[in-house]
Amino acid sequence: MRITKRAAMFCLCLLLVVMMGPQKARADWFDPLTIHFLDVGQADCILIKAPNGQTMLIDGGDEHDADEIISYLKKEGISHLDIVVASHPHHDHIGSLDDVIRAFPVSVLYMPNLPYDTKYYHDLFRVINEKQIPVDRAKAGVNFKMGFSVKVEMLAPKGSYYKHINDYSVVIKIKHGKKNFLLMADAGAEEEKEILSRGGVKADVIKIGHHGANTGSSMEFLKKVKAKTAVISVGRNNPYQFPSKEVMYRLNNRKMTVYRTDQLGTVIATSNGKKIMFKTNVLH
Ligand SMILES: [Zn+2]
């Protein structure tokens, strides 16, 4: 049987549509990517909305943040979370994640390989098991696309043992066109060194590690990242006095623009692949 060129092309197109699914096949070249750094006080919660409609949630605030996060996501039109990342098992990152993933269908959840014997961790796993959410190990080298234009890459953790729990943090780089975001979770100095040895850290925007604590954001690291803009997710009048004077000094020294959730509320970065715009004091 002779297959004509046209028939071959038709089959190829059909295969592509079937492989990518109707949502992913939506052309997304010109739609923006938005990254929402939710003001959840002394905790982390980041929502990523890709141009093709896919969604990713990194962390779910501390205990008692669930109502606020769920209502924010609903107002943003979220009905499904394609990817959820539990960056590491500390309560200010997974404290409300159990209730959040109970409220939305989740396609896959990534977390580092670190069983942790706390109420929050067990609560999270109870929902994962109830809803039979597939769990994948988060580690350096994991990468996937969100539509045509957004590339997501995990830069860490690389090893399987770290002295500090924070250094198990999933560090994620998001590339949209020419623009890059580096999301550090609570990574500290040891993890920064590991990431530097791997390379590819250059970014336009960095979500500063560990709420601006002086456990990380070393000058050496900031110099390699070369970001002009920093976002710090941190609570008003927090007892740890985050962000630290030392980290703020380094950011100012590098003349970086700093967006702090304790001063500016929820911060939204919108990228068209060439430029990033920021919106603050977002009330929902
Ligand atoms: Zn934290």
TrEMBL record:
Keywords: Signal
Signal peptide: 1-27
Record flagged with keyword Signal: yes
KW Signal (keyword) present: yes
Taxonomy, superkingdom: Bacteria
InterPro entries: ComA-like_MBL (IPR035681), Competence_DNA_uptake (IPR052159), Metallo-B-lactamas (IPR001279), RibonucZ/Hydroxyglut_hydro (IPR036866)
Residue ranges of every copy of the Metallo-beta-lactamase domain listed in the record: 42-236
Gene3D superfamilies per the UniProt record, alphabetical: Ribonuclease Z/Hydroxyacylglutathione hydrolase-like
The protein, known as: MBL fold metallo-hydrolase
Natural source organism: Fictibacillus barbaricus
